[in-house]
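Entry type: protein chain
Record version: 2
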Amino acid sequence: CSDKGNIPENSQLTALGFRLIHDGKEFPDITFTDINGDIKKLSDYRGNVLLLNFWATWCPPCRAEMPSMGKLTDKLNSGDFVMLPVNVKEPGDMVKTFTAEFGIDFPVYLDINAEAAMAVGVTALPTSILIDRDGNAVAAATGALEWDSDEMVSMLRNWTR
């Protein structure tokens, strides 16, 4: 049995806008690229608590939550927490321009053909999935969230201890 850390209580997750995932299926080891075109796999990040966020530059709720995601990364500079914002179906140069214009200074990733998004059942943007250290999806949310709220930061900080 591995140490899963302090996985949040179900009530805490639902209060923050997540729906619980109890399907018992292993989460797909999706692939995507970093902004420089280097291939990444979800399994590369095993051992960390992951926030997998699918987004697009044309999506108003996606744009709205980006500043709070940046603040979250500033507040949770723990090696056990990794945020993976994966842009869906947009070329790297467009995403680079967007991140420069909006002052986004955290890494973003690309899913040019939406293969990763489709593999995990994304039907709307933004969609965020919380994944535990063993690579299991714990909860998901559709729509913009306040990533830097005290409650969210506290929940993620406790999980990554």
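Comment: The two ends are 18 Å apart (CA to CA).
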